[in-house]
Amino acid sequence: MLKKFLVAITVFLAVQTTQAAEAPCYVSIESPGKSYTILDVSAIAVTMIRQFIDPSVEAIPLTGISGKACMYRVNIVEKSEGLKAFIFGKKISDYGTSNLRGEAGLEQAILRAIYKGADNDSSQSAICQKYGKKLETECQGTKTIVQKSTIQSQPETTFDDQQPPTDNSEAGIFKHNQPSFTVEYPDDWIPKKRRRHPNVVFFATAENKKTPAMEVVVVKPRRKMRDRGIPRFINSQWQKRLPNSGNFKTIKAKRLTLKDGTSAYFYVVRLKPNINQRRKITASYIIAEKQEKVVMVSAWTLQKGRAVKDINRLVKSLRFQ
Predict the structure, then answer these.
(1) What predicted TM-score, i.e. pTM, was given to this entire model?
(2) Ranges in the chain annotated CATH 3.30.160
(3) Closest listed residue to residue 272, CA positions, set 317, 234, 242, 296
(4) What is the bridge-based pairing of β-strands 263-272 and 93-98?
(5) 173-320 belongs to which homologous superfamily?
(6) Rounded to an integer, what distance in angstroms lies between the CA atom of residue 114 and that of residue 164?
(7) Helix spans in 118-192 (H)
(8) How many whole angstroms separate alpha carbon 100 and alpha carbon 109?
């Protein structure tokens, strides 16, 4: 009996350890400063932390994360003499400074924080080898380490970067099975597939840009979808992804029929990525139920006018087979 109990405990601990090892960490932008948006800071912070500190990190997805998830918290503090970037997480707790302005200053401050927080010479050497011109003071006289680094080099990525999709989609068309549907996207956009997020089946963004972007979510709901609760649900997802967002407003809400005859909800919302900034995100949604699952196609942009019409057209391209 005791032997069986010990075996059970051993198996349980092994499973828990494996699950913990596979769980990703996320980058949360606590404060982006006055001159930057959360999207700006996230694009750089996720890229740098993933390359030199923790290869498992991801940006917080639109679908949100658990309150117990592993987190790297980033704070940007701006003063007249420059800015500071603070990064706190399980593998780093440090800050970096920069006297530069704009994106160059933001990138330099984050790089300095990561350089100072790096736990070995190999990591610092890898940083200098790739970004030595941005850290001339720190990297002056640094010798390039030839042997294999303990941190595997990662390609530069942007906001919400994921691995390329492995489905049978054609260029400009995403295809999904069970339920079977297609969604169109611009031919020059880069399709990506989110790792470890099975509900997010598709993500694409314009090349080398954070926005505009689109996302497709397929999920089995716990209860029947009601139109009154959809705006509240959309707002909650943005709050999880951008904790400092605000001024959420529903611009349009109506029922419509897709070209294949499926009844769907169409929503257009607007919000500020940061409550203290003027820039606003406009996001469009098509939400439909099929085969006891909810399919949500969303697209968002920071631009106005024609850009909003374009994202409306993208979400309305949803077709069930």
Answers:
(1) 0.50
(2) 21-139
(3) 242
(4) unpaired
(5) Mog1/PsbP, alpha/beta/alpha sandwich (3.40.1000.10)
(6) 27
(7) 121-131, 136-139
(8) 9
Distance (Å) of CA 134 to CA 37, 42, 44, 127: 22, 19, 14, 10
CATH of domain 21-139: 3.30.160
**Preceding amide of 179 cis, omega within 30:** yes
Beta carbons within 8 Å of 318's beta carbon, 6+ residues apart: 181, 182, 183, 258, 264, 286, 288, 295, 297
What percentage of the chain carries pLDDT values higher than 70? 74
Using DSSP's 3-state secondary structure scheme, residue 271 falls into: strand
Average pLDDT over residues 80-98: 90
Query: Residue 270: which of 283, 279, 286, 285 has the closest Cα?
Result: 283
Collapsing DSSP to helix, strand or coil, 232 comes out as: helix
Show Cβ contacts of residue 246 under 8 Å, excluding neighbours closer than 6 positions.
271, 272, 274, 275
Average pLDDT of 245-258? Answer: 84
Separation between Cα atoms, residue 200 and residue 65, nearest integer Å: 13
Rg (CA), the chain: 22
Token pair 């399980």 is at which residue? Answer: 90
Residue 3 confidence (pLDDT): 52
* Residue labelled with tokens 């190999």: 122
Mind listing the pLDDT tens digit for each residue in 129-160?
888 888 988 887 654 433 333 333 333 333 33
Q: Where in the chain is the domain with CATH 3.40.1000.10?
A: 173-320
Identify the three-state secondary structure at position 72.
strand
Phi, psi of 94 (to 5 degrees): -160, 180
Residues 192-203 as b/e (b if ≥16 CB within 10 A, e otherwise) read bbbeebeebbbb
Give me 106's structure tokens: 């933001």
Q: Residue 197: what pLDDT?
A: 65
